[in-house]
Amino acid sequence: MTPTKSCGIALLAILFASACAGPKPAQHGWNAPYPEMTAALRLQGDAARGEAAFVICQGCHRVGALGRVDGSYPRLAGQHATVLIKQLVDVRSGRRSNPKMLPFADHLALTTQEVADIAAYLERLPVPSDNGRGPGEQLDHGAKLYAADCATCHGQNGEGVADRYFPRLAGQHYRYLLREGRMIRDGTRRNANPDMVNAIRNYSDEDIDRVSDYVSRLPVAPAR
Amino acid sequence: MLALWACLPFPATGAEDTVAKVCAACHGSDGNSTDPTVPKLAGMDQEYLLRQLKGFASGQRRNEIMAGIVANLDSGEFATLAAWYGKQKPTPGKVVDAKLAEAGRRIYEDGNTDSGVPACAGCHQPDGGGNARFPRLAGQHQTYLLKQLGDYKSGRRATDRLMVTVGQRLTVDEMKALAEYIAGL
């Protein structure tokens, strides 16, 4: 097990324990570990095996996991392995609504080991700066919203926090950010962090558009 | 020693007799059938072919004709037959409608993002060459391809759950276009 993963699991255990003891357990249930998530996180992912297993994903997420500029499928390249594992098992366990992906994330399609392998493969992939961008209007408004409501968790440069399941945002396609932002605000994605739902609860469609545009222009980090 | 033997590729010799007496009438003497309802087997991955033979025998893949034929074969011969067909040289298919094939190319390479059809190229490879898990498609007969896609859509063929999903998401027009494009690969 990698030190990162050990830390993640230790942190999870602490979070889980405090969630059980704390006054508002439901508020922090979004990342409470469940057996399949814990199992996938504990496995040592193998990037070479992950590359082979990824073929069933690349029909949609494309070669190199670059996603599509139209946002129909997100870029997965360079995303934190913890985030990828959580989102994939959330989809297949029904915690995250994603009917298009569900059959391809099923146990019949991918074993738990393959989930860990794919995450290990994707995390190391380079993130080119050719992601889909927004129209570039009122970027200062987007920047202001990002600094006020997003940067605390997702980081100044959209780098995310692996151990807390906060996704990396830099290099993601604008249209995907836009769609997921609305789904998270409206509760239709279902597995969102309640802190994020609260943070953007009062965002207009326009606000989500501006902040997504701003995020789509964050500089991408060099490959791991 | 036994383990070493088990690691060796399936032997391709010894299948000729069964091929000539049983299989060739429909699948052709070299595994390139001329009947468009019967699949070309030449050049397909031997593991894939072996899985299909076992599927016909167990009934997991429903096909009355093949069920009857494999029932009269020694199942110990399946691997030899699969290896023999895998080593044959596939012949190219024939595109009759270039415009339809072009529409098929777009689905094959890009999928349909609205309905969630993945690009076929993702699993079956851009050249349709396939592998052990996902079969070779290149040059296959349009009629056979259409029948299989239709069977996935209806659930009659359920050998691969992912393909059942893909079949359900594909329209009949998209299937026709894909079959036309794949025949030309």
Briefly, what is this?
The complex is a heterodimer of chains A (about 220) and B (about 180). Chain A is mostly helical. Chain A folds into two domains: about 5-125, Cytochrome c-like domain (Cytochrome Bc1 Complex, Chain D, domain 2); about 140-215, Cytochrome Bc1 Complex, Chain D, domain 2 (Orthogonal Bundle), CATH 1.10.760.
State the main characteristics.
heterodimer, A: 224 residues, mainly alpha, Cytochrome Bc1 Complex, Chain D, domain 2, 2 domains, 11 helices, B: 185 residues, 10 helices, 54% helix, 0% strand
Average pLDDT taken over every residue of chain B: 93
Mean pLDDT level of chain A: 90
CATH H level of the largest domain in chain A: which superfamily?
Cytochrome c-like domain
Task: State the assembly state of the protein chains.
Answer: heterodimer
SS element count, helices of chain A: 11
Report the strand count of chain A: 0
Give the SSE string of chain B.
HHHHHHHHHH
CATH topology (level 3) name of the largest domain in chain B: Cytochrome Bc1 Complex, Chain D, domain 2
Major sheet description of chain B: none
Along the chain, the helix and strand elements of chain A come as HHHHHHHHHHH
Q: Tell me the major beta sheet of chain A.
A: none
Number of helices of chain B: 10
Highest-level CATH class of the largest domain in chain B? Mainly Alpha
User: Roughly what percent helix of chain A?
Assistant: 40-55%
